[in-house]
Amino acid sequence: MDSLFSDSAQEARRVVAPLAARMRPRTLDEYVGQDSVIGAGTVLRAAIESDTLSSLILYGPAGTGKTSLARVIANMSASHFAEVSAVSSGVKDLRAAIEAAEDRLAMSGTRTILFIDEIHRFSKSQQDALLHAVEDRLVVLVGATTENPFFEVNAPLISRSRVVELESLSDDDVRAIVRSALADERGLAGAFVLEPQAEDHIVVTSGGDARVALTTLELAAQVLGADPSSEHIITVADVERSTLVRPLSYDKDGDVHYDVASAFIKSMRGSDPDATVYWLARMIHGGEDPKFIARRILISAAEDVGNADPNAVLVAHAAVKATEFIGLPECRINLAQAAVYMALAPKSNASYRAINEALEEVTKGPARAVPNHLRDRSYRGAKQLGRGEGYRYPHSYDGGHVDQQYLPDGLEGRCFFDPTDRGWEGRRRPWSESSDEGTE
């Protein structure tokens, strides 16, 4: 009777489950995408098929198949499969799961695969509670996270596990999943026809997230299915009504935040204005703090444009002030203007390299005294001490320049600043060529 009631309850849950849950793959052959990780001939696939899996952490964006892969492992393994939610469970729940796994191993020799979804949400103490169990193989840990585990998961736990990164699904992968859901008995069972333009819209707006694609398909089918006069043909208009906002992955302090910001900075540095405004739009759309964006532009103005165009810093600073004074949404225009200016400006990182090399010399080189002729002689008694003697005043010479030693003893002739031949910087005459004799 327990089995009958259990089967009945499972069927009831399956009927009301969302399409994305109903279409979870049951075997590796049904699993779509991630061929480089789980495809034929890979180490992970061989471990799953031979039921010799060791602890691993699945890392990747939402909708890439982390939980689905854990379910496939559960279906294919002879081990006991236990699941703990990092959202609702604490140390007590973890210890109970580990004790049960230890008893199971001792009494029947059955291993336990412990699946922890969103493992990054566990605190340090909760993660530490797993260490001995993973190290002693009382459990085989399968953790899933959307956050970079090297930032969010304790180093000792990572060292005892294999980190597997899952990429966003390709358009072909998402298309295959959508078509399978249309035809499969667990899905829409052939009751709907999806127009090619509607399919394209679902694929493009999913952003490589299978869950988003299936949710959009399900919403469009539900609206259409409620109309008894409908022919059950899903059009692009039906899909558009079901996706009022395109879901693009973005977080303000996680991997996507840093990856998009990095792409934005590198696009400005690489002189690509189109890529620059695209990544700027991604950050604005994702709700990024505009002051963060403005700071990145100001840094780029000094680091990547430098003295090839000294006005770049002024433009960037104006964008910072406009962002503080105006705010969104209007300051997006100021940010775009400044970012495009950085992309179009001639580039020089000579000043950036110069300060880094000088700092390395200061921190690693010997302590060097200020040459006597450069010392301060403005105070009473300096002349008596001989401070500043021998200094030649540049404005007393033609061109306002005179050759004399400015670096400390031991660094004479050392070049920290190596200017480029680009922009304003490239038009400046080398200092050594402008030396003229004059009178003090």
Describe this entry's structure for a reader.
This protein is of the alpha/beta class and 440 residues long. It has 4 domains: 34-165, 3-Layer(aba) Sandwich (Rossmann fold); 171-242, Helicase, Ruva Protein, domain 3, CATH 1.10.8; 255-344, Zinc Finger, Delta Prime, domain 3 (Up-down Bundle), CATH 1.20.272.10; 367-434, post-AAA+ oligomerization domain-like (Orthogonal Bundle), CATH 1.10.3710. The protein is 50% helix and 7% strand. The strands form 2 sheets. A 5-stranded parallel sheet has the order 2-3-4-1-5, with helices on both faces. A two-stranded parallel ribbon has the order 6-7. Helix 7 links the parallel strand 3 and strand 4 (140-145). The radius of gyration is 32 Å and the shape is elongated.
